[in-house]
Design brief:
The complex is a heterodimer of chains A (about 150) and B (about 525). With about 150 residues, chain A is mostly helical. Chain A is built from seven helices and no strands. Chain B has about 525 residues and is α/β, with parallel strands linked by helices. Chain B has 13 helices and 20 strands. Classes of the chains: A mainly alpha (about 150), B alpha/beta (about 525).
């Protein structure tokens, strides 16, 4: 059985990925799969990213934005990929993912521009918050190749 | 009545067997033969499957979610689901290592073509330049195979690369994105053709009307999982058909170790190991036909020589199509809707002539419709939430052009055998690119990217990947057909030189590897060989 912190992580990640409510089966499968992984966090920074991301969807967004460039194949990105795979596959949650978001072309491009701008601002904020931790906790990564 | 001992139930083996059974001869087919699982809810769309299955997570991601596609340095936009696990399962008796080559092998009933996306293209004279027979010798057999499996196709610009001599069915309904690209091509054909690139409908082994036990495609969007209506052809359907012949014997669960020879070097049968009991068993036949797939066939051949002579040679000439994957976006489709339940695979194909047959390119273009989201979203250059928002808006605009380059036999690309400490035979493959390979690949990438741009699609350079050798799954050339009297080659009738009554019916006997998908030709060639064995 996952502990309270692990349940919170699953809930936060699912909420961040657009499914604030989901069956407990998804949480169980999420932790089962992670338990089977033969690779864990690469270093203390990798583990830190997961820890702060699990705190709230907003922090998950910042940590993920930074991880996309600093740890694209790291623990956090793998956990989010797993959660997304479970959400898009389960009957109770798949509908949010198995679709396009049709609109007029102008509205679509406007939405893309908005998403891009928000992402750029978030990337700056993520760098301010995560880069110092990266320097301190991820020193191992600068000495060894990932 | 001739008794044929066929090894392997892939595309070549089953069509060879069907041809000789139809003329009343006897066939014993030896096979490891891992079975395709029964598809649940055969009339449900992919989305309905998720809602109606008791446990969709296990059905689609595996019992321990082991089929999730995680981000990595070599990312793939899709992953095979558990229902395709049988295609890639390997017996413990099989051992392979490789350098510069990353192959897939199959021991499934139906072989690797169980995971085929159905591309069916007749070869032309140019493709067969290195083969010891003419196009006229092969063409009637394309007609036989097309009649057996059903191929949806349309006459268009691609006929200049691939003739249409067989009877084809009506093409599948075109999806909106593919239709838009084809319309743009019709308007701007001259500019695209000036780059040497031609576009048309892909020819696919998919039924557009019911045929026997197989139903017509109803656009369930479950192509990758394995079509539950059997509209998309797989050789296991032909294997099922073989059981209707009283002179057919199917022996699954055996791994063929080597060919049995008499004192004169004539093939008399095969020595196989039962996978469950582990005991060796002998099978006999008047003709022994290797159809286990180019790699497994090479291993059986080399093991035979190792046993007979105490040493096995290196087999030069291993071939594989260079495979390039080029994702693209059609900006004018941003914001459009997409039909999730639809035929998942390619609707369009492309051809490009090189300076020589070895420089030819063949491709298939797939517009994204129903697909797993996580393998795609995890590769977008944003955080997941932004990527999901972007993906929702651009989903109807995304597509992938997969294309392959022809290959020729080269002495440095070899298959050989290694005897392990445990006394097992391990197949070793070694493959190296040369400079001209890379030059041709980059020329093709540039021309196809430019062609896509002309018809309104953008293919970012950073997203294009040249996949490792072996990923095309088209392996060939280790025991080539040739008129030259050399050891470890086959005659035009696919009989192996130096042995009597031993034949190679699969890709191992190909003299060169055209850019076009070879599965249709493997089947037609197996029928040709079966006719020649009269």
């Amino acid at each position: 059985m996952p502990n309270e912190w692990e349940v919170r992580e699953a809930r936060t990640f699912a909420s961040y990925l657009g499914s604030p409510s989901f069956p407990s089966e998804i949480s169980d499968r999420y932790h089962e799969a992670i338990g089977d992984w033969r690779i864990g966090p690469y270093d203390r920074f990798d583990a830190w990213l997961v820890r702060i991301a699990a705190t709230s969807p907003a922090l998950a967004s910042l940590a993920d934005t930074y991880a996309r460039f600093a740890r694209p194949y790291g623990d956090l990105r793998r956990r989010l990929t797993l959660m997304l795979a479970l959400l898009e596959t389960h009957g109770a949650t798949h509908a949010a993912y198995d679709r396009a978001r049709p609109s007029s072309a102008a509205a679509a491009w406007l939405a893309l521009a908005g998403a891009g701008t928000a992402w750029a601002l978030r990337a700056v904020l993520a760098a301010v918050i995560c880069a110092p931790a990266h320097l301190v906790l991820g020193a191992k990564a600068s000495r060894q190749s990932v | 009545m001739a008794r044929h001992l066929v090894i392997g139930s892939g595309a070549s083996g089953v069509h060879y067997a069907l041809t000789v059974l139809e003329r009343g001869e006897e066939v014993t087919l030896l096979d490891v033969g891992y079975e395709r699982p029964t598809a649940p809810l055969p009339d449900a769309t992919y989305a309905q499957l998720k809602e109606q299955l008791e446990d969709p997570l296990t059905a689609i991601l595996g019992e321990r979610s082991e089929y999730v596609v995680y981000p990595g340095p070599v990312s793939k936009p899709y992953g095979f689901p558990p229902s395709k696990g049988y295609v890639f399962r390997q017996p413990t008796t099989w051992s392979l290592t490789s350098r510069g080559f990353d192959p897939l092998v199959s021991f499934a009933r139906g072989g690797l073509a169980e995971a085929w996306t159905g591309g069916s293209y007749e070869l032309d004279e140019r493709d067969l330049a290195a083969f010891p027979f003419s196009l006229g010798d092969l063409q009637p057999h394309y007609a036989t195979v097309a009649r057996r499996i059903g191929i949806a196709a349309e006459r268009d610009d691609l006929e200049r690369f691939s003739p249409m001599t067989a009877d084809y069915d009506a093409p599948l309904p075109l999806d909106a994105h593919s239709g838009q690209l084809l319309t743009a091509y019709a308007r701007k054909r001259q500019r695209v053709n000036a780059l040497g690139v031609y576009l048309g409908r892909s020819r696919v082994a998919v039924l557009t009307h019911a045929r026997g036990e197989r139903g017509a495609c109803t656009q369930l969007g479950r192509c990758l999982m394995g079509c539950p209506r059997e509209s998309l052809y797989a050789p296991s359907y032909t294997l099922r058909e073989l059981h209707r012949f009283p002179t057919f014997t199917y022996v699954p669960g055996v791994f063929v170790e080597r060919i049995l020879l008499d004192d004169n070097g004539s093939a008399t049968g095969a020595l196989a190991r039962e996978l469950v009991a582990g005991v060796e068993k002998k099978f006999t036949g008047d003709r022994v036909v290797l159809a286990a797939g180019a790699l497994a066939t090479s291993r059986i051949y080399l093991s035979t020589l190792q046993h007979e002579n105490g040493a096995a040679p290196e087999l030069p000439g291993l071939m594989d199509n260079r495979h390039v994957m080029m994702p693209f976006l059609t900006p004018s489709r941003v914001g459009s809707d997409v039909e999730i339940a639809s035929y998942q695979f390619h609707h369009l194909a492309l051809g490009m002539r090189g300076a020589s047959p070895g420089g030819d390119v063949h491709g298939q273009i797939t517009a994204l419709k129903g697909a797993q989201v996580h393998p795609i979203v995890s590769t977008l250059p944003f955080d997941f939430r932004t990527s999901l928002a972007v993906f929702g808006r651009v989903r109807a605009a995304l597509g992938i052009a997969n294309f392959w380059l022809a290959d020729t036999r080269r002495a440095a690309n070899i298959a050989h055998l290694h005897l392990t400490n445990g006394g097992r035979h391990q197949l070793i493959l070694s493959y190296g690119d040369n400079e001209s390979d890379l030059g041709r690949t980059h020329e093709a990438i540039a021309a196809i990217r430019k062609s896509l741009r002309i018809i309104g699609a953008i293919a970012p350079k950073s997203q294009t990947s040249v996949l490792p050798r072996g990923s095309s799954v088209h392996y060939a050339g280790t025991l080539p057909m040739t008129n030259e009297d050399r050891a470890h080659t086959c005659r035009a009738d696919a009989s192996v030189r130096g042995f009597e009554r031993l034949f190679v019916a699969d890709g191992a006997a190909f003299s060169s590897l055209p850019a076009k998908n070879i599965t249709f030709t493997l089947m037609a060639n197996a029928v040709r060989i079966a006719h020649a064995s009269r």
